[in-house]
Amino acid sequence: MEDRPLADLFPPATRERWLGLVEGVLKGGDFEKRLVSKTADGIRIEPLYDPAEPVAQPMRQPGSWRIAQRVDHPAGETARDLALADLEGGADALTLVFSGAPAARGFGLTAATAEALDAALASVMLPLIAIRLDAGGRGLEAAALLKGVAERRGDALGGLDIDLGLDPVGTFAATGRLGADFGKDLSDALATFDGAGFAGRACLADGRPYHEAGASEAAELAAVLATAVAYLRALEAGGHDVARARDAVAVLLVADADEFLTIAKFRAMRRLWARVEAACGLEPKPLRLHAETAWRMMNRNDPFVNILRTSMAAGSAGLGGADSVTALPYTAALGLADAFARRVVRNSQIVLIEESNLARVADPAAGAGSFETLTDALTRTAWEAFQAIEAEGGIVASLRSGALQARIAETAKTRKKNVATRREALTGASEFPFLAEKPVTTLDVAPLPGEAVPFGSGEGLTCAPLPSRRLAEPYEALREASDAHLAESGKRPRVFLANLGAVAVFNARSTFAANAFAAGGIEAVNEDGFDAADAAAQAFAKSGARIACLCSSDAVYATHAAAAARALKAAGAARIYLAGKPDEALKAAGVDSFLYAGADLLALLGEARDAAR
Q: Does 398 map to a domain?
């Protein structure tokens, strides 16, 4: 035997050899359609990338990202208890979410005085943790309250790790209202805090309003960058040195379950900011980059799947270079999270950091062909989108004209279609729904009344507010209707699966159909296969269902489906479906709709819901 390394005994791996093997597997299939996908921005996702040269870029300060937990209970004493449990359990940062803020989602701290906020933070040692305020239009008020708490305790502002989170533009995008003097208000607030020894970040360019409205990765980056630049201009116009203005700005990006795009997006943000710094004549410094897991990916049904989503998103944000990560509890879409849900989301990050050691490498994606290519493409695409916003007069002018909203709406429209056709699958909602799920608990706290207030003083500016949507909402509406029917009648709407032939023949499409109908809360009545149309019709009549779905192979459909459809119609089926591609002859025989991969499932389920009740 030759005494050589094992790898030397095989020919070198080349792209040409790989493509040859791929052609054999595709058997004439289209490489582009089968193996290449595109992001919402039109960026190509290749199946294989060559190694890349690492690109030097600013990253977070050495060390792990911070685990930030939301403090959003309206009752100060309960908010304090939950915060202390989080800190004792491993969190090292708190996000103080005030009522009225878009991110409070009907809840939030109600403290109106420094004394009340001090009580809500009793026993919380501010010098030992990081604090970020999330107060929307109440941002200036919340910042003053936190300053008052520090003064009451004798904590020097310069020794605290604080992000005031003032984001008038993000609040404008989410609520459609803004005070025209917001720039002066920002500048005056920073001057007041700096005069008291503050050295942290006053402004936050927040990507959540754009992401929740359906924006693509590049659109979110562009909006955030344009917002950060607007704050730089406002602070400089207010007399602040451009270097201090730069240090006073932080960014928050949304992290979702797409690990590749999330990592690339966070890396791209740092490159984009470094480009702005260079244009300002500044030596690049690490940007304070916060992350929050995506609201739009959260499910109300089968919420335990949210644990997987938020864990993936939090890990991806950390790998991409986030300084702090706020992960939404898995029950967030159902109400205010209890201690258990908070513990789960906190421990997920602890496992990522302490057991998986994901924070030990400063930039683990460096040199990976896929991540370097995606980061570069996102950076270029986002910069072009940023330039478009600037050409419209800046982020505020773009929002006032509706131009930015229109572009995001176009992306959201495509995403909505992808959700309806399950091209963008939602586990627990459109894919693998679980009708027998047990309810989860949330805190018994009713949402607070009242509307969001505008940020800042001066003449009121208005724009069309960006909507906040979760992707699963259309499927959840169907499930809610099914739940109401169950509560009223004792049973869910049903579909009879008319399985034709042997199990081996119908099982794949029968399983596919059962899962598809369950996405709309319609329970499948499933029986063994039928060889005769009359037997299927008799079983349907006994099932109590009002609609039926034929399930079998194309070969069986060719010989048996037409007769089965006519028999089911005669037996009283209000609507007949077939698991397979549309067929005109079968339509003529009585098949009303066809269920197949790529069909508009939401439209089909809406029809089925009405016919099944």
A: no
